[in-house]
Amino acid sequence: MTEQTKLDQFTNQLAAVATLVPRDHKKVGKIAQAIYTRQVVTIVGVKTTTSRFLPVSHEGYSNETYVDKVELWGKTRAEFIARKLKGVERRAHMALFREKVETYLRNNGGGQQGWQTFFEEKFGKACTIPDSLCVACWNCSLFGGMEAGKGATFSRIRYFDTFSVEDAAECIQSDDSPEGMAIGNTVGEDLSVERSEASFHRYEYVKAETRFPFITIIESPTLLDVAGYLAAVKLADQHGYGKYSANHGKFKTEFLAVSTGYPLFSVLDLLTWLENGELTNPKEKLHFETAVNNPVTLFGEEIDEIRSKLDGQFRAYMEALTKQ
Ligand SMILES: [Zn+2]
User: Fold this and answer.
1) Within a 10 A sphere around the Cβ of 1, how many other Cβ atoms?
2) How much distance in Å is there from the Cα of 165 to the middle of ligand 1?
3) Cβ of 200: how many Cβ atoms within 10 Å?
4) pLDDT over 60 at 179, yes or no
5) C-alpha–C-alpha distance, residues 72 and 99, integer Å
6) Model pTM?
7) How far is the CA of 292 from the centre of ligand 1 (A)?
8) How far is the CA of 303 from the centre of ligand 1 (A)?
9) Which of 16, 52, 65 is nearest to 248 (CA)?
């Protein structure tokens, strides 16, 4: 018998890709299967800003924008709430999904067919975030959703609020009337005319090189869920998070560990460890406890191997959908 690689051991604990194929409910049509394997995959990493970032979850303030902040463990920290992280990564995941569908169809005799037709056929409608979710596709199976008259699928992915490692005094700055910021009432304005105080937008932002550790847990995961999540995060880094994300909120993400267990640490522990430079060898600090079987934990290049499985797993998903 050949010895299993660590990635094989990891994969063997996950659900089959066919569990992502929706069932056909007599009354309501296509709906994502409820899968409960009690297994989880935890992904741990650090996101570092590469540009100005405006984590803003509140509305209001006519011409002023404030970064969300909290007092936590002796520091004032920029706060990056779970709901915002999830929102951006869900959209990135959907963008990736649509692109992969179209590539697959092109390479498998589907011609230049758009994702919409395929979605309508396989999931009952062209799933659109946030107002017209199909509750049947891979994205809805992972991130959850509701549709009137059809029901709901629970989200299988859990996010946690995160905070800057650095103190506000170090990582938050404010500025006036920046070029490139979306300020509706200045578009088309004659810039040679001196502007009044009222047309300036005063805003705070998180500076580049600010670190936010994160923990994400996927329940009843397939290998496609994990590989797709890793790719979606990288895509979201390019698209941008936070307010004015067209120009701002770019990140680079380092994945520190991916495990089939629950974390024995929290985001707060990660903050302390990063502050003290204690995460240079993630293996020493990042420990996990049993979900179903003994956790298999991947680090460094082993995580890149999961990412390399995306295309093969996606193909398997498309084949499972087409076989129906
Ligand atoms: Zn959907």
Assistant:
1) 3
2) 35
3) 16
4) no
5) 40
6) 0.90
7) 28
8) 27
9) 52
